[in-house]
Amino acid sequence: MVSKVVRGRVMLVALLTFFALPAVVAKFFLVNQWYESGVTNKGQLIDPKQSYENLGVNNPYAGRQWQLGYVVPAKCNEFCYQQVHLLGQSHIALGKYQSRVTPVLLLSEVSDRVAIDKSSFQRIEINDAFHNLISDFELVIVDPLGQLVMRYPMVEREGDLVNQSKDILTDLRKLLKLSRVG
């Protein structure tokens, strides 16, 4: 009789150890910050959450379209023209998702409007609050609800523009695939 009780207790302790030990070890790793979660996005997530509405910017595509925006600098040089061109090429490269995204030029009070007059992209007027969050030469992805999702800082070399465009396409395709809005 004693051996059955001892055997039952050993079995109970073994089962508890078998199921509880992984949870205890996982908690130990998380508390000591030994685990780094994997990140698949290429751009920088905008945190804390910001939106056109919070920043006082009018969203002409509210509830309808995702936006891939480019903040036009005060002086649009050759680098700027290449980014505007790649903005259009990125939109074309979206393929079946193309109808869900609108490329836009984000214009502040100091933006070089003469340089981009030839461009056929839609324009959105931004204010200082937006411009303080997203700088010149930066690209931003905005969801149909007006939430700023990701930003892509200015690259240092012109050769990195194509890689940045590929990163934008990768992130945008993932967002559009998972999104139910727009």
Describe what you observe in this structure.
The protein has five helices and six strands. The protein has 182 residues and is α/β, with parallel strands linked by helices. It folds into two domains: 1-38; 44-178, Glutaredoxin (3-Layer(aba) Sandwich). A six-stranded mixed sheet has the order 1-6-5-2-3-4. α3 packs parallel to α5 (161-178). The chain is elongated. The model has no long low-confidence stretch (mean pLDDT 88).
Rg on CA atoms, Å: 25 Å
Q: What is the fourth-level CATH superfamily of the largest domain?
A: Glutaredoxin
Give the DSSP E fraction (strand runs of 2 or more residues).
15-25%
Identify the CATH class of the largest domain: Alpha Beta
Counting H and I runs of at least 4 residues, what is the number of helices? 5
- Whole-number count of domains: 2
* Main sheet record: 6 strands, mixed
- Spatial order of strands in the largest sheet: 1-6-5-2-3-4
Layout of helices and strands:
Elements: H1 2-31, E1 44-51, H2 52-55, E2 66-71, H3 78-93, E3 101-107, E4 122-125, H4 128-133, E5 139-142, E6 147-152, H5 161-178
Parallel strand pairs: 2-3, 3-4
Antiparallel strand pairs: 1-6, 2-5, 5-6
Helix pairs in contact: 3-5
Q: Concise description?
A:
With 182 residues, the protein is α/β, with parallel strands linked by helices.
Keywords:
182 residues; alpha/beta; Glutaredoxin; six-stranded mixed β-sheet; 41% helix; elongated
